[in-house]
Amino acid sequence: MFKKLTLAAIIASLSSVAAQPATAQENGYKIPAAPISEDLTIPRHEIAVLDSTMSYLEQGEGDVVLFIHGNPTAAYLWRNVVPFVSGNHRAIAVDLIGMGHSGKPDIGYTFADHARYLDAFVEAMGLTEITLVAHDWGSALAWDFARRHPEMVVRLAFMEGVVPPAFPQPSYEAMGEGMGGMFRDMRDPEKGRQMIMENNMFVTDILPSMIDRPLGETARAEYAAPYSKVEDRL
To answer: Which of 85, 108, 147, 170 has its CA 20 to 30 Å from the CA of residue 60?
Structure first.
């Protein structure tokens, strides 16, 4: 059934894209601007997790499908996917700690921190027999969770994953001039702070450059809101 739902979602998405006039190329985008709703119609909830709170979207009943976003997005990323799954599944899209509408505890926001809070979220929600669906950096968290909790995961789907063999690379040079240079600069104390903290590079530059259609004002505002303060961009 999960495969059928996924296929239906893909067909619906492709059909909507194909129906649009090819005008986006004039703005430098590769594909036409599909009529993808930026409205959030899925109920949002909040739950206490460790020393903070985590926000999540939830819709439907049945077997659990847990959606995990990447960087610098949020549960909002899945707003048009969840409805295709929630007809006969309990679809949950979580805001990772410090992201989206989740709390911002005083932690280092390392991979281990994110994994710890994700574990605590799953426990607080009482989730079992989980289908994980992950994107970007969230894919690494999903694979790590599945590795440590194989008895809790029944299947895992991921896209554009920050996982082998794409990452990690043996050197910055192996990543190519553009990406390698960017990550090298990020690791520099002065350049990295300027790029990430001062310029908010993940939201203002990286996110728009990694998609093939323009983001509307609502989506841009939703993704930018958690990082309006410099101290929240770590």
So the answer is: 147
